């Protein structure tokens, strides 16, 4: 090991050992204060084994009741760490999975404490159940499970770039890649003290994603929830209510892709000029464009205020990424550190800006057709028809607006950047796409209706999202024992759906799964997949992405306008390095040579 690696190991021991232990102790004491009967049972056992004398290490291992209590405390209040990104949308920021619970879910968990304490901890229960059914994984290491390995895989994966190839699993989804390499497709890992089972059977995936009232999303880090809550993080009735209110707004809004994309192209024109090709890192420009689109579409006439809100969100996301890089300590966000104060300040500033816009709208006599206007309209219609309980509060509308920003921006810019990179490598497909675009629109302004009839561009976008899906995995969890045919998975387990692995699976797609072949989608998605759940970049079932059509339309408009004006190829300085930071991004940007047509 290098000195750096030794230091990293020490840091892991510090975090995994010190913070998780103190968190475990504090929750155990709280639970035992609440459940005096178990406190008495534990004391009886301790007094029986040690009397009032000094406990011997050997005998500590024989405390059965104490071990049961510690495992149950860990199950209810796990203190895991910076493990996985499972949701493509920033609101979840589930980098810090297996962390503390929200107040509401804590109250629910309290209720089951007594009933579940009969089991000797989740590890003891989980392992025989799933290994008996062919799932394999590492044996459980107390408190931090596979945390150390996961950290190492993640760091090693992105430490060097790769040759240009679409075989990106080792880099983009290193944890699943390594686990499945070692244990096979039916495998599991320990997210701290929580077991996480990898699900790769298309039928099981269909069932999990269809039954959204049975399989919930895993609880995220409460710090991350400061960023945005909204429909993507709600469950059951609250989720259904919000989805019903937001849906009409998405169907009626008029997106402003043309304006924002035009702004981006004007910037490229200034850099490239008329003579020869010029190198441009297109990645930051695509990010600005998609963020501009969402500011205009969400806040329309209040575009300037909208931009300010989103700038604050960007700042907040950076703080949150830093916060989630360390283990989450329950209650830590309430401590008035400088960092926490800054984050709270941003929340306050954002809310007052959004509230200002909303108040202005409420007083206006005419309705506006931006997302916020439509949302307010659909909300007040619902409240008029079914009473005020059925609508959203102003705070909830604010949260949904914040969510649109995170949901709508990074994901779509990722789709665009990988499409441009792939078309730079495959100039034959770039030419075919341009031919189609020029045939349908010439050099004129694309209209929305006809964007939907572009066949080649559509095939290319799907193939780009198959190989480089913005969200590389989805997560769900079991609240009670779940049965899938002969397979049974106990309660309290995370289900990891490695979306990227499904998109690259040679058993499903053939030996050429890693090759860019848009012709796979020449007869549509259902023909390409034969109706199986093996391609689902926007998720599946009732919780499928609300912005799916929006994103596809935006990507088509942008690709049409780019293809009309430019030809592009990889620059010699382009470095292929796909990397997952919540979503799948080009780690070193996208340096392309742009030539004006
Ligand atoms: C290429 C772009 C996009 C991709 C790949 C994508 C992907 C996804 C995926 C995979 C989910 C499901 C997550 C899960 O089931 O755990 C989802 C949900 C969602 N997406 Fe997107 N998304 C994109 C763009 C957008 C845009 C532009 C918006 C809005 C402006 C949006 C809003 C949402 C919302 C609100 C949900 C939550 C739906 C619910 O829980 O009912 N997405 N997205």
Describe the structure in your own words.
The chain starts with a helix and ends with a strand. The strands form four sheets. A four-stranded mixed beta sheet has the order 1-2-7-4, sandwiched between helices. Strands 3-11-8 form a three-stranded antiparallel beta sheet. The chain has 597 residues and is α+β, with helices and mostly antiparallel strands. The chain has helices at residues 3-34, 36-50, 57-60, 64-76, 103-116, 121-131, 147-157, 169-172, 174-183, 202-210, 236-252, 257-272, 282-299, 303-325, 338-363, 371-386, 394-425, 427-441, 448-451, 455-467, 499-504, 506-509, 525-529, 548-565; strands spanning 188-191, 194-198, 277-281, 474-477, 482-484, 487-489, 494-497, 566-570, 578-581, 583-586, 591-596. The chain is globular and about 85 Å long. Residues 87-89, 217, 231-232, 243, 403-404, 407-408, 411-412, 415, 470-471, 474, 537-539, 543, 545-547, 550-551 line the site of protoporphyrin IX containing FE (HEM). It is a single-pass membrane protein. This is Cytochrome P450, family 72, subfamily C, polypeptide 1. Belongs to the cytochrome P450 family.
């Amino acid at each position: 090991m290098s000195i750096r690696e030794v230091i990293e190991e020490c840091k892991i021991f510090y975090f995994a050992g010190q913070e998780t232990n103190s968190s475990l102790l504090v929750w155990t004491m709280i639970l035992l204060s609440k459940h005096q009967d178990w406190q008495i049972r534990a004391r009886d056992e301790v007094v029986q084994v040690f009397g009032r004398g000094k406990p011997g290490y050997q005998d500590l291992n024989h405390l059965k009741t104490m071990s049961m209590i510690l495992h149950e405390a860990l199950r209810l209040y796990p203190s895991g760490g910076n493990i996985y990104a499972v949701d493509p949308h920033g609101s979840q920021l589930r980098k810090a999975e297996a962390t503390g619970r929200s107040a509401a879910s804590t109250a629910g968990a309290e209720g089951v404490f007594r009933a579940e304490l009969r089991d000797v901890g989740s590890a003891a229960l989980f392992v025989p159940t799933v290994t008996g059914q062919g799932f394999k994984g590492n044996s459980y290491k107390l408190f931090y499970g596979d945390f150390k390995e996961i950290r190492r895989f993640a760091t090693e994966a992105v430490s060097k770039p790769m040759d240009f190839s679409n075989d990106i699993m080792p880099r983009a989804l290193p944890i699943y890649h390594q686990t499945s390499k070692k244990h096979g497709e039916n495998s599991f890992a320990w997210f701290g003290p929580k077991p996480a089972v990898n699900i790769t059977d298309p039928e099981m995936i269909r069932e999990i994603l269809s039954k959204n009232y049975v399989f919930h999303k895993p609880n995220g880090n409460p710090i991350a929830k400061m960023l945005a809550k909204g429909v993507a993080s709600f469950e059951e009735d609250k989720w259904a209510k919000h989805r019903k209110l937001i849906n009409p707004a998405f169907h009626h809004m008029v997106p402003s892709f043309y304006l924002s994309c035009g702004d981006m192209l004007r910037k490229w024109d200034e850099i490239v000029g008329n003579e020869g090709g010029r190198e441009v890192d297109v990645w930051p420009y695509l990010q600005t464009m998609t963020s501009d689109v969402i500011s205009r579409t969400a806040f329309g006439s209040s575009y300037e205020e909208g931009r300010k809100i989103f700038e604050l969100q960007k700042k907040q996301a950076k703080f949150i990424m830093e916060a989630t890089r360390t283990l989450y300590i329950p209650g830590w966000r309430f401590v008035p550190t400088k960092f926490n104060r800054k984050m709270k300040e941003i929340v306050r500033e954002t809310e007052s800006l959004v509230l200002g816009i909303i108040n202005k709208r409420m007083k206006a006599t005419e309705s506006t057709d931006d997302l916020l206007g439509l949302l307010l309209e659909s909300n007040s219609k619902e409240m008029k028809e079914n009473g005020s309980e059925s609508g959203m509060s102003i705070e909830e509308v604010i949260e949904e607006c914040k969510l649109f920003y995170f949901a709508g921006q990074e994901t779509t810019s990722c789709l665009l950047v990988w499409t441009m990179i792939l078309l730079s490598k495959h100039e034959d497909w770039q030419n075919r796409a341009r031919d189609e675009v020029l045939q349908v629109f010439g050099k004129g302004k694309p209209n929305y209706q006809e964007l939907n009839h572009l066949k080649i561009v559509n095939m290319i976008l799907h193939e780009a999202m198959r190989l480089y899906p913005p969200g590389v995995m989805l997560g769900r969890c079991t609240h009670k024992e779940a049965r899938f045919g002969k397979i049974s998975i106990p309660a309290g387990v995370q289900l990891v759906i490695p979306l990227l692995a499904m998109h690259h699976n040679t058993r499903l797609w053939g030996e050429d799964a890693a090759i860019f072949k848009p012709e796979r989608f020449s007869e549509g998605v259902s023909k390409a997949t034969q109706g199986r759940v093996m391609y689902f970049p926007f998720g599946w079932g009732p919780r499928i992405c609300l912005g799916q059509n929006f994103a596809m339309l935006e990507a088509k408009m942008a690709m049409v306008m780019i293809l009309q004006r430019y030809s592009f190829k990889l620059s010699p300085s382009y470095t292929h390095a796909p990397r997952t930071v919540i979503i799948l991004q080009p780690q070193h940007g996208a340096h392309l040579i742009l030539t004006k047509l």
